[in-house]
Amino acid sequence: MSVRPPRWRQTGIIIVVALTAVLGLGAAVYLSVRTKGTPRETATAFLAAWQRGDLPAMKAQVLEPPRGFDGIYDAFTKGSQAKKITIQLIRVRPQADRDFGETTTYHATFSVTLDGPVPYSYDADLQVIDFERAWKVHWTPTAIHPGLQEIGSSEVRQIRVVPQPDGSSRLVLLETRAKGEQAGSLFADEGLKLVATLADSAQPEVTN
Fold first, then answer.
1. 150 backbone φψ class: left, alpha, beta (φ>0; ψ -120 to 50)
2. Most buried residue, 29, 63, 79, 152, by CB count within 10 Å?
3. What is the reported pLDDT for 155?
4. Is 132 exposed, middle or buried (0-12, 13-18, 19+ CB in 10 A)?
């Protein structure tokens, strides 16, 4: 003779099973749609790759790398005379809340030190966005230096160290002068003009 559990116990068992199924389904949906990794991990991977000169690893973190990506970074390194690049991630913070129809964006700030015959330090930033369930760097020239805002890759190639009368030096951005354009005499013989000063080196210390 079988003993059936009371009706209230049957009802309780049914509710527990139903809740378990619903929670399990919710967890499966969450795991299938959540964005993998974190903005900090993506920013860190990108900057660490830059520091060690691993351009393929950098591009793997970038959404739609521009044409000539490798040449842009090579030109910046050569133009700045950097023998070693040291990068420190400072902060990653949300730039916009997640809203319907909008992409989640994070803002990452970092510091760069270019070590070589002429040392320079400066702060820069980049954006990390949520794209198809993956965090990606939304690359612009400011990911190299804020002074490179809204310029093309051809201008990035015109980077140069310019010695100063006091013994210090400047890292500058140049571009080709238009025909007949008056842009000072510093680079007149080369047909170039100064667009921006990217960094100043420390004046050499005087020792007795």
1. left
2. 79
3. 64
4. exposed
List the structure tokens of 22.
Answer: 């619903």
pLDDT of residue 77: 92
Q: What integer pLDDT is reported at residue 9 of this predicted model? A: 57
Q: For residue 152, which of 166, 141, 168, 139 has the smallest C-alpha distance? A: 141
Distance CA 140, CA 91 (A): 19
**What is the value of pTM for the model shown?**
0.74
In angstroms, the CA 120 to CA 142 distance is: 17
| Cα(30)–Cα(23) distance, integer angstroms | 10
CA separation (Å) from 18 to 13, 14, 24? 9, 6, 10
Tokens of 60: 């793997």
Strand ranges (E), 47-163? 84-96, 105-115, 120-130, 135-138, 159-163
Residue given tokens 């997640």 in the structure block: 98
Cα torsion 55, 156, 64, 111: sign: positive
pLDDT block averages, 10 residues each, the chain of length 208: 58 56 44 72 96 96 91 91 93 70 81 90 92 90 85 72 89 84 75 87 54
d(CA 56, CA 64): 13
